[in-house]
């Protein structure tokens, strides 16, 4: 079936032309390959080919400039752009000029074949295309790791839509930065970008902060207050730490998303909501849903396109570039310019970075400010990391995971045993010992309400009752 499909390949690198021609040929496609943009253009004009695969930098013309021209004369001909300049901006330009897909080099041939198959069969969608490039304010997203490339591609595609996005990732992984990129390069870039952090606002004020309030709506509302939804009209509303949103505000937000309009606190007239929503959280929302802390229906409204930002320790290949970037930023803010030697980079790569990019940024600023020599060594990095460890700003750390917490306690328990570990039945003992404090915690958190405690624990109510009896846990009467 592939025999009838012809693929036009343009790349000035002969090796790439050969590899692509062989791989595509083996898959049954007919391939015509050229080193010049001019020849590719001629083929397209003649009506040849069912798909174009083009490089960006070619001697006679930039492949990206060719995409809108191709789309103008043959709107149905799909174009896959590949580039060794694998930056975020290339990904955005490819998406905005109407490329079907963007492949950062080097890529896997399997991946290429999958993209080709998709490009030839995917149903025609109105390809969003903007004539003018979104330059935004030059917001650099640093990192060439495969994980970041994948994120650039997703973000680039999203800049041509208004879809709601949910960004998850540990603290300091760049969630706010990605939300800015979605705005600055997106369709609403001429509108405002408004951020609101759910964790930073007193619970009782969140609804009025979001939707605004009328004069006299509550004690202290002396004048009408404009909410973030109204401030962000025509632009993007960034809902940071959405997992910390109180239940009543969740219900109200859900209604707004369903109905597309909101009313101010104390107001009557509905106002049309005109915002693109980007939400972010470092929490595991699925777990919060299971615990009854986050509305499942709201989650699905927000999680239209999920983006997961990997922690820095999962993309250590990005550390040298990021470190360089943060040193440059430190210099631009008036601190002395510094270099890192190889041992410094090696030491940076060994660290676990619980505070992610923000922790690296803070370290680079400290070294720029305090380290006397121009070239920073591995020893200096080591000393600074050791120094910072116990003082680490809790804000810049990710909260400890359950596994880490348990491990910490087990380790100190074992260390405290004078005669070494109790050798018998350790597995059963530890599991049994966890039960009692866990149930006590759940009962305390729900003030003795066994129905809520059972829901939080994910246990059947009767099972919980049985365990309370077995473990002889105190029951708060009258509340359950
Ligand atoms: N890929 C990146 N390229 C350049 N800078 C980055 C990158 N990722 C993060 N940073 C920088 O690291 C710092 C932390 O990023 P950001 O505030 O976006 O993280 P966050 O995930 O929103 O954190 P939190 O959850 O704690 O609010 C910022 O100064 C940001 O500019």
UniProtKB/TrEMBL annotation:
Pfam families: AAA_lid_14, HTH_8, Response_reg, Sigma54_activat. Residues 141-369 form the Sigma-54 factor interaction domain. The modification 4-aspartylphosphate is found at residue 55. SMART domains: AAA, REC. Its main location: cytoplasm. Gene3D superfamilies: 1.10.8.60, 3.40.50.2300, Homeodomain-like, P-loop containing nucleotide triphosphate hydrolases. It is found in: Cytoplasm. Keywords: Activator, ATP-binding, Cytoplasm, DNA-binding, Nitrogen fixation, Nucleotide-binding, Phosphoprotein, Repressor, Transcription, Transcription regulation, Two-component regulatory system. This is DNA-binding transcriptional regulator NtrC. It comes from Teichococcus vastitatis.
């Amino acid at each position: 079936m592939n025999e009838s499909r012809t693929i036009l390949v343009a790349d000035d690198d002969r090796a790439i032309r050969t590899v692509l021609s062989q791989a595509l040929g083996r898959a049954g496609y007919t391939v015509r390959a050229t080193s010049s943009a001019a020849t590719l253009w001629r083929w397209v004009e003649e009506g040849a080919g069912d798909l174009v695969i083009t490089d960006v930098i070619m001697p006679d013309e930039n492949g990206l400039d060719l995409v809108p021209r191709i789309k103008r004369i043959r709107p149905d001909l799909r174009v896959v752009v590949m580039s060794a300049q694998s930056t975020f901006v290339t990904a955005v330009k490819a998406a905005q000029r109407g490329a079907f897909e963007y492949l950062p080099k080097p890529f896997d041939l399997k991946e290429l074949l999958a993209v080709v198959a998709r490009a030839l069969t995917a149903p025609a969608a109105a390809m969003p295309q903007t004539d003018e490039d979104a330059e935004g304010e030059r917001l650099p997203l640093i990192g060439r790791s495969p994980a970041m490339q994948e994120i650039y591609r997703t973000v680039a595609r999203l800049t041509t839509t208004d879809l709601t996005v949910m960004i998850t990732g540990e603290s300091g992984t760049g969630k706010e930065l990605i939300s800015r990129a979605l705005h600055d390069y997106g369709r609403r870039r001429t509108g405002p970008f408004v951020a609101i952090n759910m964790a930073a606002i007193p619970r009782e004020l969140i609804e009025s902060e979001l939707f605004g309030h009328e004069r006299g709506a509550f004690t202290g509302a002396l004048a009408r207050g404009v909410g973030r939804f109204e401030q962000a009209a025509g632009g993007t509303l960034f809902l940071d730490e959405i997992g910390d949103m109180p239940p009543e505000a969740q219900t109200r937000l859900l209604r707004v998303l369903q109905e597309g309009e909101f009313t101010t606190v104390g107001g009557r007239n509905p106002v049309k909501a005109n915002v693109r929503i980007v939400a972010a959280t470092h929490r595991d929302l699925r777990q919060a849903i299971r615990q009854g802390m986050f509305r499942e229906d709201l989650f699905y409204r927000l999680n239209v396109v999920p983006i997961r930002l990997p922690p820095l320790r999962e993309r250590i290949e990005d550390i040298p570039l990021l470190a360089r970037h943060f040193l440059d930023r430190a210099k631009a803010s008036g601190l002395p310019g510094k270099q890192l030697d190889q041992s410094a980079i090696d030491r940076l790569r060994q660290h676990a970075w619980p505070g992610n990019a923000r922790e690296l940024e803070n370290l680079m600023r400290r070294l720029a400010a305090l380290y006397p020599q121009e070239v920073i060594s591995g020893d200096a990095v080591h000393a600074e990391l050791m120094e910072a460890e116990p003082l680490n700003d809790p804000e810049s750390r990710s909260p400890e995971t359950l596994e880490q917490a348990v491990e910490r306690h087990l380790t100190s328990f074992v260390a405290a045993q004078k005669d070494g570990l109790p050798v018998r039945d350790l597995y059963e003992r530890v599991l049994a010992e966890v039960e009692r404090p866990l149930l006590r915690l759940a009962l305390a958190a729900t003030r003795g309400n066994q129905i809520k405690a059972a829901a939080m624990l994910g246990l059947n109510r009767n099972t919980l009752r049985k365990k309370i009896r077995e473990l002889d846990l105190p029951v708060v009467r009258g509340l359950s």
